Amino acid sequence: MGGKHYLPLTDEDRREMLSAIGVDTIEDLFSDIPREVRLQRELDLPPSLSETEAVKHLSSLAAKNKNLNDNISFMGAGVYDHFIPSVIKHITGRSEFYTSYTPYQAEISQGILQAIFEYQTLICQLTGMDVANASMYDGGTAVAEGAIMGCGATRRSRALVSRSVSPFYRAVLSNYFNSRGLELEEIPLKDGHTDFASLEKMVDESVASVILQTPNFFGLVEEMDGVADVVHKHKAVLVVSADPLSLPLLQSPGDYGADIVVGEGQSLGVPPSFGGPLLGIMAARSRFVRQLPGRIAGETVDSEGNRGYVLTLQTREQHIRREKASSNICSNEALVALAAAVYMASMGPQGMREVSEQCLQKAAYAREKLTALDGFESVFPGYNFKEFAVKVPGSPEDLNSKLLKKNIYGGVDITPFYPELENTMLFAVTEKRTREEIDTLVRELEGWK
Amino acid sequence: MKYNVIDGLKYTKQHEYARQEGNVAVVGLTDYAQDKLGEIVFVELPDVGAAVEAGKSAAVIESVKAVADLYAPVDGTVTEVNETLLDQPEVINQDPYGEGWVFKVEIKDESQLGELMDKPAYEDFIIKEEEEE
Amino acid sequence: MRKAKALLFEMGRSGRRGYSLPDNDVPEKSLDQLLPQKMQRNEPLGMPELSEVEVIRHYTELSTRNFGVDTGFYPLGSCTMKYNPKVNEEVAALPGFAQLHPCQPEETAQGALELYYNMEQCLKELTGMERFTMQPSAGAHGELTGLMVIQAYHRHRGDHHRNKVLVPVTAHGTNPATVTMAGYEVVQVPADERGNVDLEALKEAVDETTSALMLTNPSTLGLFEEEILDMARVVHEAGGLLYYDGANMNAIMGYTRPGDMGFDVVHLNIHKTLSTPHGGGGPGSGPVGVKERLTPYLPVPLVEKKGDQFYFNYDLPESIGKVQSFYGNFGVVVKAYNYLRMMGAEGLKQVSTDAVINSNYLASLLQKHYYIPYDRIRKHEFVVSPKTQAKKGAGAGDIAKALLDRGFHPPTVYFPLIVDEALMTEPNETESKETLDAYARAMEEIARIIDENAEEIASGPHNTVVGRLDEVRAARNPILRWQKE
Q1: Which domains does chain C have, with CATH numbers?
Q2: Nearest residue of C to residue B62 by CA position?
Q3: Does this complex have an ipTM over 0.95?
Q4: Cβ neighbours, 10 Å, residue A414
């Protein structure tokens, strides 16, 4: 049997322990399970594997996948192929961190608590917010919880979401809203951006949250000038989803008046992992602190006056407030938040800025080259960060299969999410892409139909 | 008795007190309640002008590991709230019947006060509750 | 000597760097040309500038100020802090898993899809369910997904008045919170004197507004609900469904299955039962399984097999939609799948056997010095109630701190709420008899000290890197981020 080395009890241990308990057989310990529900056979699972066999099996499954290390990727849509400093895996691989539970016993959890406190600070610096939590599951659930926070804060039950917000996030959001009996309406697009005139018309005293994303799903930086004023005029809450790696370069959400900032933190040193584990970012103005979902680390002192950290404001949370809690979230993505903190600590302000500038420059270069090809058209005017939408002269699926033969992952086909955009693809260009790789992509598509 | 219970006040089974001052009742948490709750860290106050209903939650009192609703002892309209508690919630622990009052309510129906417990009745009530623990 | 640790922000020096990037090799345009000035950031990032060595030393020191399963015994009740096999970490980090993009073509991710497919087959057999989704990212997320599925089922049948979910008093806090998240009202069901759900009270509580009963079995008291079949019948006859919170699945693998007990929906905490690490709070993974009549409502996409090809099926018109942006915490599922394949049927049953032996054995040792309510056979966990010790001046919270001083992680304190001064203790199958004996000796010593001088225990911990932390101060004047003086 494979996993025996994880089970230290010997037969003799078991005999001694049963006798200490005061029962004769193991069966006696399960006598409280009614006979009618007892499984009268052994579980029918594949035979157990030794460690060698398991590694072989898993490696063979892994080998059936083409991965980003062996291919040039232009896929994005929320998950990106960014540089990941080697230090991250060595730190998140320290088992004092990764084998610990939520730091309820603060005195022996100062490591993870301080790391979370630092993470919260870094997220606040990036977003221009006052408080951040210890993480949500991913960008989609962070958007949904941010919108619900707005409902709690305003005691209203209706939200507006721009169609330029990722369709993946909107799918989660609409499901959360539908289940809870909250109302959701979409703000239409204008040239790939949120239609500001429609937003102005739609927002009124019944609206709790207005949810925007910038850079939006098409990679376009939204014009945020005046948006907060319109939203605040009706005492609604402005929820902005932002790629944290765009923020070293872009005006901070705090600066243009956002109330709650959410987003996907995968850009910050986290491998794509087929879409999970990811990192949900959640930050807000201090007046929303009691509506914040999830865990928050706070500073305090110990019995001798030394600085230390604890989980605080726990009365918001499910284990204390139960059905009145701000959310049901319990397990979060703490280790991924640690990875993001290590990323930011390693890159520093200079490195963060350099990465985002390279994304901007390289995406602009790729956009210019690609859309110069016959039949390839830029879909929207505006300012792109690291992604852009292109209309291609044929089916995106065919285009991607052609590229795949050259070990290139092309763009993401976004027509299924926006049926009005025919044959449209979203290309992402991170700092990891080289000029040569971009030129290869362009060369491969030259004359393609 | 270990807990301070004051003569002349009216008490609820959820451990609120009401002190009648003219047609207004001053409402707060009893000494017993503040002791059970432990160190109070946050208070959510009702809005002035809000209508409260006897037996319904009107304010929320939080300690580190517990949340308690403060129920209105009588129907009425909130006339004043103790804003000191927003910055210094510990005042409830220090002086529950004095500086630690929570809100004042204009009494609609004075007979509702009559239905509440007086000092001896409330003391008996606490003793019973202590025994049950 | 106790000493506070410097924060990242108090370290480093302007001009220092901890990264290396290749130079930008595309023709550079002026920034203002690519991004109008008013869209540009106009405040500094305010982040520290550190060398790689400083970063490594900072976090290495932080790690020494943290206690994990690898550090020592971690009997945290209902959290199943079992050993996390190292090989799991290794396989999950393979580039063929970690470096996959969620939008890459299905034909390039056949191994990932096959793994999801295989995992689903295993979980179906383990629980007695018809289909599974791996999308929920944690246990509570699974609960929410499960209730959404139940809600969709009722709504689809035109049953719109079912707006209540029954939750026993012994339930995890996530259950009532989830009920609210899903737009339902909570109806609390009391326990009887044996610690089971009170069947008579349950009969009273169910009616035509009942959507579901959420239940953990064994409960947080570590007790198996002996009347589970009657409970299931009562709820089903009223038209409600049964939801199984799988947090305590570690007690029953190979002995009984939620599906056979009558549950319609189940979530598993694979970061508990199937050995993946908790990561200081996450990531977890909370797959949800359902009986056949509920399969149409599961989140999209489901993984299907056609011939020898695997694909994502989005064609589920009654589906609730999505609960996570992509397909769930794949990286966590890889680890759990590896564990499951190594243990096999016999191994998993041995896991539950040993978990139950360890729990009953440790309870029998502690019973000599502490009150343990509900004197009967327990499953994988039990609740100690140091009421007499509390009266002497050192309660559950103080005993927890005294355990820190003795190198143990304490049990879950003050939960479940129906036990005074609760210490919910879950020893797990990966602990040896010697470890349990040592823990029992420490608990005995603590009880003895409390008898002699409770203050010594109440003033702890004494040997940790920081003394007892002032939670009141943290809550009264929240400092939630570092700020420049």
Answers
A1: 87-343 (3.40.640.10), 350-471 (3.90.1150.10)
A2: C475
A3: yes
A4: 20
